[in-house]
Amino acid sequence: MSKNDLNFELNLLPVISLLAVLICFLLLTTAWIHIGSVDVAQAIGGQSTTETKPKPEVWVTIHKERMSFTLKNVSKKNKKLQRRKPFPSKFARRYYAQLKKNITNLNTALITPTRGTSYGKIIETIDNLKAEKITEVGVNPL
């Protein structure tokens, strides 16, 4: 073997370029972890058994483009706000505001989607509830 056979050049420029792209991708995706997370707490069932007074709750059932609402643990005067017949979901935000105005300690909601409910409709419902300061939101699986 001659000395010329041992001398060779290795082009590292493509390797360095690839590493630079991978590092940029890693840095960008770690920033998206905080943006893409949803802060939720378990709405029903996470309380201890020593709690004496049950909190008022609204149970939201989503039927594609319509919604129905059942109120739990509220006074008889506030039971009249219950909407068991489905009505258009575009009026839901107004209904949440009316509920929060009449039942000030309403803080818990349980969303029950039906088979044809889109994921976007569930997220929209969560956003509308959070906008009206109903923070303990749960989603019932199908």
Give an overview in words.
There is one protein chain. The protein is of the alpha/beta class. It has a domain at 57-139: Nucleotidyltransferase, domain 5 (2-Layer Sandwich). Helices cover 39% and strands 21% of the residues. It contains five helices and five strands. It has helices at residues 3-6, 13-35, 76-79, 92-102, 119-131; strands at residues 57-63, 66-72, 83-88, 108-113, 136-139. A five-stranded mixed β-sheet has the order 3-2-1-4-5, with helices on one face. Helix 5 links the parallel strand 4 (108-113) and strand 5 (136-139). The longest helix has 23 residues, at 13-35. It is rod-shaped, with a radius of gyration of 26 Å. The N and C termini lie far apart (73 Å). The model has no long low-confidence stretch (mean pLDDT 81).
Structural class: alpha/beta
The major sheet is characterized as: 5 strands, mixed
Please indicate the percent range of residues in DSSP E strands (runs of 2 or more): 15-25%
CATH architecture call of the domain at 57-139: 2-Layer Sandwich
Q: Name the helix and strand elements from N-terminus to C-terminus, one letter apiece.
A: HHEEHEHEHE
How many individual β-strands?
Answer: 5
Q: pLDDT average, as an integer? A: 81
Write down the CATH topology of the domain at 57-139: Nucleotidyltransferase, domain 5
Number of helical stretches of at least 4 residues: 5
How would you sum up the global shape? rod-shaped
Strand order of the largest sheet: 3-2-1-4-5
CATH domain class name of the domain at 57-139:
Alpha Beta
Helix content: 25-40%
The end-to-end distance, rounded to whole angstroms, is 73 Å
Radius of gyration: 26 Å
Low-confidence regions: none
